[in-house]
From TrEMBL:
Source species of the chain: Paramecium sonneborni
Gene Ontology annotations for the cellular component aspect, listed alphabetically: microtubule
Full protein name: Tubulin/FtsZ GTPase domain-containing protein
GO MF annotation list: GTP binding
Entry annotated with the keyword Nucleotide-binding: yes
Keywords: GTP-binding, Microtubule, Nucleotide-binding
InterPro entries recorded: Tubulin, Tubulin_FtsZ_GTPase
One GO process term, biological-process aspect: microtubule-based process
Homology family: Belongs to the tubulin family.
Domain Tubulin/FtsZ GTPase span(s) in chain numbering: 46-239
Pfam family, any one: Tubulin
């Protein structure tokens, strides 16, 4: 059955997770009590994100956690989405925006209840595919509790794919602690997680502006959920080329630590689209910037809808001199979902493993160094039991990742140049 568990942590993670479930309900034609209203077309693979209860309602397989009650309380008041209240946990303390509270003190106290729910999901699933996690890297609850869970999955030696979907807020952070929190949770994500899809609030705000929407969290979450709906469409519906979490990891992650992906998508309602259009202007870029076309190690193109069944559009995507041929290596692959989105005829999604993430990380590296050189705010973390070694370890892991980005991408380039010269002789 290939089930997936959704985990939303902290304010941002819960908001995004709930919005994603709302859009899943819509995409699978579920009514407001989550019964199926279109049996034929949409039932396929609905069990990927839902468990069916005895009243034929589809309840999402999820877990929501926070250190303050407001987001969970709001979740229970939602009228158009049903989430099992036994899968929602909160405390009354807040984290004061500190990773240490989420990871070590208050957050750690939530772990027993979470593990109990997760173990139940592991036992009752036929063939669990993986876990999708949502949180903001800057939040104390989000980053700290996410790290706790990531460590739990590592200790449990799960053979399932752990896919994080963190929201970064580079350049618009509300506090300096967000820099530290981000570097700490990056340390966990670099070492243990299988895939990370990087979302960035500034990029999401830009999409809002370009589409004449108010730039607020609510609209950002809608855009992010739309992108996730596209990413997961091939897991949930039949198509010509099916996708899956394992396939994604195998195809897009050539070096284990280089697993940070950039998501984009584009709604195509006319037939005469061109690849250049899609690449250059019309994509909704939800993540860090890139420098097309040479900076991709690998990428996935997700096609959804009927127009992609035409032979010419297929050939467009595999043309040898395509802009998307990266360093001469044919490192892309496609997934295709036949069933259209209920609102949009055709959508193209994109997930790329890009060197652009290196520049993005360097900004965090600079900000971290500026703060840590002065030992600014370190006492907040020390009061909760962290020591300075954890700061230096997280920093050096980030530095290592930044330096790994260079050689991996350059080696690809070099090996291609070498082959080409060889071929001429
Ligand atoms: N896209 C988006 N970003 C959000 C949302 N809520 C908060 N953020 C951003 O996430 C960061 C703060 O994280 P929160 O999720 O509020 O923090 P938390 O995980 O609840 O942790 P605490 O610090 O304990 O409150 C800030 O940079 C916010 O701009 C949301 O609903 N959507
Ligand atoms: Mg919060």
């Amino acid at each position: 059955m290939q089930e997936i568990i959704i985990i939303g942590i902290g304010q941002c993670g819960i908001n995004v997770g709930v919005e994603f479930i709302k859009q899943l309900n819509y995409d699978h034609c579920l009514n407001n009590v989550q019964e199926i209203i279109n049996q034929d077309r949409y039932k396929q693979k609905i069990n990927v994100f839902y468990n069916e209860n005895s009243r034929q309602q589809y309840i999402p397989r999820c877990l929501f956690l926070d250190l303050e009650p407001s987001s969970i309380d709001r979740l229970h008041l939602q009228k158009d989405v049903i989430i099992d209240p036994n899968c929602c946990f909160s405390k009354n303390c807040g984290s004061n925006n500190s990773y240490a509270t989420g990871q070590y003190t208050e957050g750690a106290e939530l772990m027993d209840e979470c593990k109990h729910i997760l173990d139940k999901y592991f036992e009752t699933s036929d063939n669990l595919q993986g876990i999708m996690m949502f949180f903001s890297t800057g939040g104390g609850s989000g980053s700290g509790i996410a790290s706790n869970l990531i460590q739990y999955f590592r200790e449990k030696d799960l053979t399932k794919i752990v896919h994080c979907n963190p929201v970064f807020s580079q350049g618009i952070t509300h506090s300096n602690l967000e820099i530290y929190n981000t570097v700490f949770v990056m340390h966990q994500m670099i070492e243990t997680v299988d895939i990370v899809t990087v979302y960035d609030n500034v990029a999401l705000y830009n999409i809002c502006e370009n589409n004449f929407l108010t730039s607020n969290h609510e609209n950002c979450n809608k855009i992010m959920a739309e992108s996730l709906i596209q990413t997961t469409a091939s897991y949930r519906f039949p198509g010509f080329i099916n996708g899956g979490m394992k396939k994604l990891t195998l195809n897009l992650i050539p070096f284990p630590r280089i697993h940070f992906l950039q998501p984009k998508y584009m709604i195509v309602n006319q037939i005469n689209w061109s690849m250049t259009d899609i690449l250059k202007q019309k994509y909704k870029l939800c993540s860090f910037e890139d420098n097309l076309p040479t900076e991709y190690l690998s990428y996935q193109i997700q096609l959804r809808g009927n127009c992609f069944e035409m032979p010419e559009s297929q050939s467009l995507l595999i043309k040898k001199d395509d802009l998307y041929q990266i360093n001469g290596h044919d490192t892309h692959y496609r997934v295709h979902t036949r069933i259209q989105h209920r609102d949009h005829e055709n959508i193209i999604g994109f997930l790329g493993n890009s060197n652009g993430f290196k520049k993005y990380l360097q900004k965090y590296q600079e900000d971290f160094i500026k703060l840590f050189k002065r030992k600014a705010f370190v006492y907040i973390y020390e009061l909760q039991g962290m020591d300075k070694m954890e700061f230096t370890e997280a920093e050096s892991d980030l530095n290592d990742l930044i330096s790994e980005y260079g050689p991996h991408f350059n080696n690809y380039q070099m090996s291609y140049d070498y082959d080409e010269e060889e071929a001429e002789f």
